[in-house]
Amino acid sequence: MKNLPPDSATQQPPLLVRVGHSPDPDDAFMFYALAAGKIQTGDYRFVHELVDIETLNRRAFSGELELTALSIHAYAHLADRYLLCPCGASMGDGYGPIVVARKSLDKAALAEATIAVPGTLTSAFLSLSLWLGRPFQHIVVPFDQILDVVEAGHFNQQPIDAGLVIHEGQLTYPEQHLQLVVDLGVWWKDRTGLPLPLGANGIRRDLGSAAIQNIVRLLGESIDWGLQHRDESLQYAMQWGRNLDRERTDRFVGMYVNEWTRDFGAPGRASVKMFLDEAFDAGLIPQRIEPEFVDL
After folding, report:
1. What three-state secondary structure class fits 248?
2. What range does the domain containing 274 cover?
3. What per-residue confidence (pLDDT) applies to 11?
4. Predicted structure pTM score
5. Which of 90, 131, 139, 273 could form a disulfide with 199, with the two C-beta atoms 3.0–4.6 Å apart?
């Protein structure tokens, strides 16, 4: 019988970790080290799927991805299936999703408008619902088309008065001669003193504590690697920066990959709880949620 290398008969294949994140510069920056093999992943093999956040939110109900970007709003419906990773957050610290229109609108006018939104499970949608204090007329539009449909005034022959903008459109909307109606991150910070919790990474509960902790550590290493090798990571992230040059890509990444991304910290966790508590009190989510974070 041919001699086998030591332990080869008992070696297990790496555990597949399917990772879902958005095709935008900040997520690309965050996951670059994992995607490009810049860090050793040991017993884990990461496969990346780049999908818009609302699609990821919807897919999470079936739990098909072991590690996935989630809107904090969506997490309110998924807390039985996913834990929140302490790293990987997208927080709007005095900035955040914005509403834009072709002309200036006040709050009362916006409440009667038809608003293009990137998804009804996004934190942007929940934030706008809280700000308006009531349900509003909306049409779901792919996030990267919202500025265009607001400028055009229609989507699939339906009139559009305003748009709820996430990702890099927060920086580029003036180029399409649109007016800022409200910055929801400013509103939240002025009212609470806290950053607006927008996105997180959720890890599936059924992976077991050892795998969960190891995967979360690797996610943290990827974020740290990107921050420590900013130029290389930015070069990679730029391919998802629609209409962003390097300077604005750097600015946008800095907005959403920073110390809050390295760790929610006590203020970030408090903001998540407050956001979800207010959503429940307003009747916008079905039950009160006590956020659960992975402890390392």
Report:
1. helix
2. 15-91+196-281
3. 62
4. 0.93
5. 90
- Where is the domain boundary, 140, 159, 192? 192
- Residue type present at position 139: I
244-254 tens-digit pLDDT? 899 999 999 99
Interatomic CA distance for residues 151 and 160, integer angstroms: 9
Count other C-beta atoms under 10 Å from residue 9's C-beta: 7
177 belongs to the catalytic site: no
Query: Does residue 121 contact residue 71 with C-beta atoms inside 8 Å?
Result: yes
Largest separation between any pair of C-alpha atoms in the chain = 82
Rounded to whole angstroms, how far apart are CA atoms 99 and 169?
A: 10
CB count in 10 Å sphere of residue 169: 26
CB 241 within 8 A of CB 249: yes
Burial degree of 293 (CB within 10 A; 0-12, 13-18, 19+): middle
Q: What is the pLDDT of residues 136-146, one digit of tens each?
A: 999 999 999 99
- Active-site residue, from 48, 167, 177, 229: 167
Q: In terms of Cα–Cα distance, which of 3, 59, 26, 14 is closest to 256?
A: 26
